[in-house]
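Lab meeting, item 3. Inverse folding demo.
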């Protein structure tokens, strides 16, 4: 994928998450199976890096369920980072820090303090990263922050498996991007909570996760599905060196 198209797709998502930061944050709850399901993989006292942390809801869940965790959250959207910091004032049993970091820019991992981490999380993140090489770079840099025996846990939306979500697909002419500049598996989805918005998403399926793991020197320990109204929106993968 050429650099211009990558920047156009990144701009679509930056605009969405900036404009809908509050309504997006309000739609993400602590009872969501898409975060509860990873609790068995996070031991008390672990050093956790949450890449693409959004409103920081995972920190609130870990505060309740995993005392003593040391948590660092990263997100590219300043408005979401600010919401996360405000919410972190409620924390009682864990230490949490939040930073604005754009993981689509090469070298971002060098700006992250606290490494190595026992758990590095990329929950609902990779499908928003345009271009195979960019996704591989994000995963490679995330893995560089992992402790030798640590786990990298990622999830990606499997939106084509659900008729309700397939109805959200929009034509690329909506944003004026020629389809021939895109990769197979690139889609545009609408949003109608608190206004009309669009998001870029790439279908990162199990085959691509295996390829990405191989490309970045990781191995897939296990996969499973969870989240969404139907219970299978997200494909989760636990990776190790």
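The presenter then showed the designed sequence:
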């Amino acid at each position: 994928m050429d650099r211009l198209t990558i920047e156009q797709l990144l701009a679509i998502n930056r605009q969405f998450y900036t404009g809908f930061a509050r309504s997006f944050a309000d739609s993400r709850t602590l009872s969501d199976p898409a975060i509860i399901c990873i609790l068995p993989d996070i031991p008390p006292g672990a050093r956790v890096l949450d890449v693409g942390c959004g409103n920081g809801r995972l920190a609130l869940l870990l505060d309740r369920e995993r005392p003593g965790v040391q948590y660092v959250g990263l997100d590219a959207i300043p408005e979401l980072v600010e919401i996360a910091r405000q919410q972190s004032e409620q924390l009682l049993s864990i230490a949490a820090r939040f930073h604005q970091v754009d993981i689509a820019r090469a070298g971002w991992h060098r700006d992250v303090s606290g490494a190595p981490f026992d758990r590095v999380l990329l929950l609902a993140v990779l499908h928003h990263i345009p271009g195979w090489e960019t996704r591989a770079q994000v995963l490679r840099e995330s893995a560089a922050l992992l402790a030798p025996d640590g786990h990298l846990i990622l999830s990606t939306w499997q939106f084509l498996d659900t008729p309700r979500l397939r109805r959200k697909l929009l034509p690329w002419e909506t944003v004026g991007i020629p389809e021939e500049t895109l990769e197979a598996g690139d889609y545009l989805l609408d949003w109608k909570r608190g206004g009309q918005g669009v998001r870029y998403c790439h279908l990162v399926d199990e085959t691509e996760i295996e390829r990405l793991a191989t490309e970045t020197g990781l191995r897939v320990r296990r996969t499973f599905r969870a989240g969404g109204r139907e219970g299978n929106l997200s494909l989760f993968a636990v990776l190790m060196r």
